[in-house]
Amino acid sequence: MATQGSNQAFFKSLQRYYTFYTGGFIAFVIMVAILEQMGVPNRVLGYIFLGATVLLYAGIGFMSKTADVGEYYVAGRRVPALFNGMATGADWMSAASFIGMAGTLYLSGYDGLAFVMGWTGGYCLVALFLAPYLRKFGQFTIPDFLGARFGGHIPRAIGVFAAILCSFTYVIAQIYGVGIITARFTGLEFQVGVFVGLAGILVCSFLGGMKAVTWTQVAQYIILIVAYMIPVVWLSVKQTGIPIPQVVYGYQLQKVTEREKALNDKTTDVGAKEESVRAIFRERAAKADANLKGLESGGVGFLTAERAKLDARVGELKAADPQDAKALKAAEDALKAYPVDPVEAKKAWTAAKTGSAAKAAPVKAHAESFAAKDDKSRDIARKNFLALIFCLMVGTAALPHILMRFYTTPSVQEARRSVFWSLFFIFLLYFTAPALAVLAKYEVYHNLVGSSFAALPAWASNWAAVDKTLMSITDINLDGIIQLAEVTIGGDLIVLATPEIAGLPYVISGLVAAGGLAAALSTADGLLLTIANALSHDVYYKMIDPHATTVRRIAVSKGLLLIVAVLAAYVTSLKPGDILFLVGAAFSLAAAAFFPTLVCGIFWKRANRLGAILGMSLGLGVTAYYMYMTYPFFGVNAPLWWDINPISAGIFGIPLGFIGVIVGSLITSSPSKEVQELVDHVRYPNLEGDIETKGA
Amino acid sequence: MQLTQKHKDYWRRNLNMTAILLAIWFVVTFVVSYFARELNGITVLGFPFGFYMGAQGSLIIYVVIIWYYAHYMNNLDKQYGVHEGDD
To answer: Helix, strand or coil for residue B48?
Structure first.
């Protein structure tokens, strides 16, 4: 282990490197800004940004290449707390945090705060229950701890299975994010974008394992936080004149709330206009509902009769003299769009009914907690809000790629400090996201709504032209003025369009894309490494060939990394549905599989092998079962237990995991003296006459 | 090895602090969120208080909890002589 003095020198030189790096990055951004002023087209700027950052990560990866086991698995255990905090921040904040979070908050207001609280408060559990103890244990992976603490291959094997299950679902969402960003800013195909991004991920982790990933993640954190802050601060200055959005957005929120009331009040001017649009949507919903009822009673006969009516109408209009071209075109389109069979008809009309009904509803109040139509639904909303926070928090404290990071600090004390720095760096982004959501909402409610279709704000018309799922505006009531109900916004728009809303040049949009890419790449790096390490270290080295040489162990790990990465990219390129659900599922699964067993392993000496096996399989099993039974994707659609949504399935799995550990441990004998000494060993940072568990 | 009384005291104090901080964490997270609708009647810095706690207040408290735990435990290590050496 390095000495105190050399640790300090190392810290100083790291500080120097990264200060220099940050300066260099800012200079690079300024240079691109100058290129933009010289008239270089936006697409080229996009290429420069994404190409330069991916090359940079590859460069860091290349410089950190290593063949040492300790460096490959745990970065040599010399990452200072501050830098481990930044690396953990980048490891933690995924494409969903960077691009999706502010959008979720924009769309769901207070109820979206479950993610903000859940994904930060979980670090309290990491700090209090896991990080210092795992650092003292000091091996390479989380299944290592399960193997040593509970003995035998079964607890380790379950740990490997759970680690791969949740990391793989999570990594697919990251690679998906990489593909989307690359495709949008360079114009490459989504599938090509996926593999280009993958190359960036691989160069880094392939050459230097955890060491390269750590130093790249620090670099990625700096880019992502700068990219997130600049547009929000600018937008705040534009709206309020004050550059601290987190402090002033309370007053913007008040204005948004007032505006919501006006929009919902039929007696005001804007409210009356909204009402006229809602009336049209109500009509459409009623029409779709009538069609659905007709289909139910009449079946195929209803479809043919309705189709015949449309046919007749087209014929009538064709025969009319003079011909009304507009009406004829409309009738022909209606006929063309008419569903051909009952299955398709049911799907189309159900979608039309729910879509229109949502549009016909009043504006949701941003600041209102658990908004719902009556007390009973409010209670259900509150219950699910609390359950989701709980699952996300416990899941945070159980995801192997995060826990693994705390093996890399030089000491237990540094591990404790490093949890603080981790949360601090994550906090910077997470307490800005709700501010961004409110500022963007202010912009939409005050400046977009009420402007005329002839003179749309530039950002709105640009994004509506690029991607209909992110932004679409249709003049429903044909008055030439934009009403809120005529605007459809996709969550991802908020972060991506903020530079344009704030009136910043394109270079900042490129910066935001680079930030999103950094967030997705850094998380993917950590996840892929977790999967490859679980397979190479836990399965190959610990279970199959304990005599393997270090060269062979690293070679196996690198080979597996390549296979897993290509497999993940392949699955991603098939575009599996509902990425967000997969991410949520990973949290509940990890929470139920790992948290009870890890915590009992440290805090309860009596916990033993059967307890661990029972706890992990019961927790994981119940969580997976509930998701399978209730999530619409699987098609079973069993009734919910106590109205809990499938994303929070961990709320059942976590307590059952604890019960499993307790019951399993009590019905079998106490663990051996060696195991009890191991528990003492992890509890005290330094113990005289102590055993040694450090991995080599 | 056999643990001394001093070691046991160290562990007990660690558990006590863990329990206190966990209780704060629980109240800030679950109790405050449970009453968010009621708290929204109070205004702080322009925010309804329930919203403020979800968006900022609780986060700040989480950061402080972790900072305090690291600070407290790193001192406790030294006080009880279980801190890591300068190696």
So the answer is: strand
Give me the phi and psi of A481, to 5 degrees please. -115, 145
Specify the pLDDT at position A579: 65
- Cβ of A389 within 8 Å of Cβ of B29? The answer is yes
pLDDT score at A1: 44
Directed axis angle between helix A245-264 and helix A269-298, to 10°? 70
φ/ψ bin of A661: left (φ > 0), alpha (ψ from -120 to 50), beta (otherwise): alpha
This complex has an ipTM of 0.93
Judge if pTM exceeds 0.90.
Answer: no
Q: Which residues of B touch A367 (CB under 8 A)?
A: 40, 47-48, 51
Measure in Å the smallest separation between the Cα of A692 and chain B Cα atoms. Answer: 13
Residues contacting residue A546 through CB under 8 Å, at least 6 positions apart: none
**Three-state secondary structure string covering A438-497:** HHHHHHHHHHHCCCEHHHCCHHHHHHHHHCCCCEEECCCCCCCECCHHHEEECCCHHHHH
Q: Are residues A434 and B48, on separate chains, in Cβ contact within 8 Å?
A: no
Q: B interface mutation test: which of A1, A108, A117, A691 has the most B CBs within 10 A?
A: A117
Half-sphere exposure of A305 (CA within 13 A, CB side): 9
What does the pLDDT look like over A544-602, one tens digit per residue?
778 878 788 888 888 888 888 888 888 887 766 566 677 778 888 899 999 999 999 88
Sequence-distant (6+) residues with CB within 8 A of A336 are: none
- Alpha-carbon gap, residue A368 to B55, rounded angstroms: 13
A395 token code pair: 């899941």
Longest dimension (CA), chain A: 104
CB A684 within 8 A of CB B10: yes
| Whole-number pLDDT of residue B65 | 94
> Token pair for residue A154?
């079964």
CA dihedral over A568, A570, A573, A579, signed as positive or negative: negative
Contact A123/B86, CB-based, under 8 Å? no
Chain CA centroid to CA A651, Å: 20
Other CB atoms within a 10 A radius of the CB of residue A286 amount to 14
Report pLDDT digits (tens) over A617-669: 999 999 988 888 887 777 777 777 888 888 888 889 899 999 999 998 888 88
Q: Please tell me the distance from the alpha carbon of residue A419 to that of residue A586, in angstroms, as a whole number.
A: 22
How far apart, in Å, are the Cα atoms of B10 and each of A133, A239, A555, A653, B14? 15, 53, 44, 33, 6
> Looking at A453-603, which runs of residues are DSSP E strands?
471-473, 487-489
Phi/psi of residue A364, nearest 5 degrees: -80, 135
Burial (CB < 10 A; 0-12, 13-18, 19+), residue A277, is buried
Which segments in chain A show pLDDT lower than 50? 1-2, 696
Size of interface A-B (CB pairs under 8 A): 147
Helices A269-298, A300-319: inter-axial angle, 10-degree rounding: 120
Q: Which residue type occupies A373?
A: K
Kindly give, in sequence order, each residue whose CB lies less than 8 Å from that of residue A557, ignoring residues fewer than 6 positions away: A72, A209, A532, A533, A535, A536, A537
For residue A28, count other CB atoms closer than 10 A to its CB. 16
Instruction: Judge whether A550 and A69 are in contact, CB under 8 Å.
Output: yes
On chain A, the residues whose CB falls within 8 A of the CB of B85 are: 686
Closest CA to A378 of A392, A368, A366, A390: A368
pLDDT digits over B29-87, tens only? Answer: 999 888 888 888 888 888 888 888 888 889 999 999 999 999 999 888 888 887 776 44
Q: Are strands B47-48 and B43-44 parallel, antiparallel or unpaired?
A: antiparallel
Alpha-carbon distance of A551 to A489, in angstroms, equals: 52
Of B33, B73, B82, the CB nearest to A389: B33
d(C-alpha A217, C-alpha A212), whole Å: 8
> Within a 10 A sphere around the Cβ of A632, how many other Cβ atoms?
10
